[in-house]
């Protein structure tokens, strides 16, 4: 069932299967029931893998009716539906549960290859938004005028503490993310 993700179509099907194992069909008994959460999850994973906007993901799905038929969709979800589904699906509890199920499935299919290559750990800081070099320099000059007693190292340390960070454990044999922790500071 779990295939090596080589094509967007394979990613789409695999994400749907993972969503079926972890997610309920609906968020509420009063929902319209046009789409299930696993179907929307598959659409969102395809959007992320292809680096598309919500509108472009909608257009791609409209162009691939056979992909939609594979997961039981009659038509592509609207871009607003995808955006709302993202807000519902991306919670820490659900993402951790999906990682647990994914690791279990890979363990069952023996694709992790942990006996050959161990788990690797990595951590990274992310800049929240893009800023120009000119803007950075002006901010530093302003900070120096406001806080002349702080050293450059202290100012840099303070700035780094405010950035979002992620720590991941990755299976070395198949590049499967086994665990991820995000935090600020």
Write the layout of secondary structure elements.
Blueprint: H1 8-22, H2 37-50, H3 54-63, H4 65-70, H5 79-89, H6 92-109, E1 119-125, H7 133-146, H8 152-161, E2 164-171, E3 177-184
Antiparallel strand pairs: 1-2, 2-3
Low-confidence stretches: 1-5
Give a quick account of the main beta sheet: strands, pairing sense, barrel closure: 3 strands, antiparallel
Overall 3D shape: extended
Radius of gyration over C-alpha positions, nearest whole angstrom? 21 Å
Which range best describes the helical content: under 10%, 10-25%, 25-40%, 40-55%, 55-70% or over 70%? 40-55%
Could you characterize what this model shows?
The chain has helices at residues 8-22, 37-50, 54-63, 65-70, 79-89, 92-109, 133-146, 152-161; strands at 119-125, 164-171, 177-184. By secondary structure, the protein is α+β, with helices and mostly antiparallel strands. It has three domains: 8-109, no CATH class; 112-126 and 163-185, no CATH class; 129-159, no CATH class. A three-stranded antiparallel sheet has the order 1-2-3. A hairpin with a 5-residue loop joins strand 2 (164-171) and strand 3 (177-184). The longest helix is centred in the middle third of the chain and has 18 residues, at 92-109. It is extended. The two termini are 39 Å apart.
